[in-house]
Amino acid sequence: MELAHKLFSHLFPSRCILCQKTVNQAIEICPDCYSSLPHNDSCCLRCALPVPENLKKSVICGRCIKQAPEFDYAYSLFRYESNIIGLVHQLKFGERISHARSIGEMLWSKLHQAGESPDCLLPVPLHDLRLRQRGFNQSVEISRVIAKKSGITIEYDAVVRHRRTPAQTGLDAKQRKKNIKGAFTVAQALNYQHVLIIDDVLTTGATVNELARLLKKTGVTRVGVMTIARAPVKA
Question: Domains in the chain and their CATH numbers?
């Protein structure tokens, strides 16, 4: 199987999803494009919020000092700007599901580098109606790649989004928190101590915070969040 995959890759090489140059690697982004992306290297250790580059990388932002989130850590590879916005939109709305493979590979690499060992992956659930409309859950597609690389279990149905909420886009932090409160339900027992929530973009953190709160009520002791991008918080 591995030989067949290598032969197929040689005969039909992939192209960079940003510039269309030929690439021969699992992450379908060429080195030049990858280096030009807005890497989220200077960020809060707790919520991954971008901070000024002149600050130390090991810093907790003022928001987390004032009120720590329900989750214990977050990793977001990039800032939500420039080419990353297009990449996420193509995955989420343009049905470029194939982008999930490169995103998943990058997230797995970061998870491995960070040394975190979650017991399971929890893709942020979509409401059934929205899932039918879209046809897929981008967080599930990303999780599948990470699970294949790591062997970590994916929990598809343990937590459900029982209440359909308006889109979070355009809402400020307070509105997002109110909008998402009580939207999720634990449908079956979660016998895990460490759960990693997977999503595409971390904005105010309202959705993953609500999930983390719910998970800890069921006995989970450590909750992490991993996304491809982190947006700045305006309010």
Answer: 1-36 (no CATH), 38-230 (3.40.50)
